[in-house]
Amino acid sequence: MVNPISYWRLKDRYFNLVGSKCKKCGAEWFPPVKVCRKCGSQELGDHEMPHTGKLLTHTVLREPADEFKRYAPYILGLVELDNGQRLLAQIVDVDITSVQNGTPVRLTLRKLTEDGKKGTIYYGYKFTPLP
Q1: Rounded CA gap, 21 and 106, in Å?
Q2: What is the C-alpha to C-alpha distance for residues 127 and 89, in angstroms, rounded to an integer?
Q3: How big, in percent rounded to 5, are the helix, strand and coil portions of the chain?
Q4: What pLDDT is attached to residue 124?
């Protein structure tokens, strides 16, 4: 897991879906990049990504890493945001047997893990199906 000090310094990146937007050509990237992959410009700024998209494909994790075993089984999906950027994220608030590719989804902020009972609680983005 991330160092607690670094986590809180970068909390805007974990509490929001922040990517990069090229100031020259307007291309958007997630995760953030230092050089635009479209035009090669180094003039990029932080840009909040759309909070909605669709589930392209998914899998059910039944034997995850130790720190996530308490959540198993859970859904890990490839989400395409409304701007075309793709990312992997947990899909929540849906039964693992009823999730379908192509489902519209929206961003939600949820607890990821914690460092013991009195340690840092780590939050991050997940996605939930839209009604």
Answers
A1: 21
A2: 7
A3: 15, 45, 45
A4: 84
Look up the CATH architecture of domain 50-129. Beta Barrel (2.40)
Domain boundaries, the chain: 50-129
Structure tokens at 13: 């990146």
Q: Which phi and psi angles does 69 have, rounded to 5°?
A: -60, -35
Cβ atoms of 111 and 75 within 8 Å: the answer is no
> Which among 44, 102, 110 is positioned nearest to 74, based on CA atoms?
110
Contact in structure between 94 and 76 (CB atoms under 8 Å): no
Single-letter amino acid, residue 30: F
Dist. CA 47–CA 27, nearest whole Å? 10
pTM higher than 0.70: yes
76-99 pLDDT, tens digit each: 999 999 999 999 999 999 999 999
